[in-house]
Specification:
single chain; 150 residues; mainly alpha; 7 helices; 75% helix; globular
């Protein structure tokens, strides 16, 4: 459950903390997204073995998949801050977050000792809502504004 606290802190701290520096709300929200995906992206290269266990053994090329998604998350962490790219990156992140839900379910059922999954299926009561919250946050700060203008 420690990872969830870290993710929420990384997401919310810039949003609240940068208020005092008069940073626009949209950029504060994207800064949180950037920190979350930088953190999780780096995790793909530090906790590679544990992350590989989160993917069923029948999935081919699990290790390269961990590296590829880590690179994607690091790229997204930077690109979400670039206004012309933010909408497309936001959509990609939303889809990505949906696509990794099955691996979180699998890891919880298998009680993978990483990021809280060892708690078992009860962990999903926190993880799935967090995932949906992240999707909403990404939509709100990176995607939504482009639909209001039309």
């Amino acid at each position: 459950m420690q990872n969830i606290a870290i993710i929420l802190t990384l997401l919310l701290a810039p949003y609240w903390g940068l208020t005092f520096a008069h940073v626009p709300e949209v950029l504060r929200g994207r800064a949180g997204i950037a920190l979350v995906f930088a953190f999780t992206g780096v995790g793909h290269f530090i906790k590679t073995a544990a992350m590989t266990q989160m993917i069923p053994a029948w999935v081919p090329m699990r290790l390269p998949l961990i590296y590829i998604t880590g690179i994607f998350e690091l790229f997204a962490a930077v690109a979400i801050l670039v206004t012309p790219l933010s909408r497309h990156v936001g959509v990609a992140l939303g889809v990505f977050l949906l696509l990794i839900i099955p691996s979180n379910i699998y890891a919880a059922w298998q009680r993978v000792d990483f990021g809280g999954h060892a708690a078992g299926p009860v962990y999903l009561l926190v993880r799935i809502p967090l995932q949906l919250f992240l999707i909403g946050w990404v939509y709100w700060f990176a995607v939504r504004q482009y639909f209001r203008a039309t």
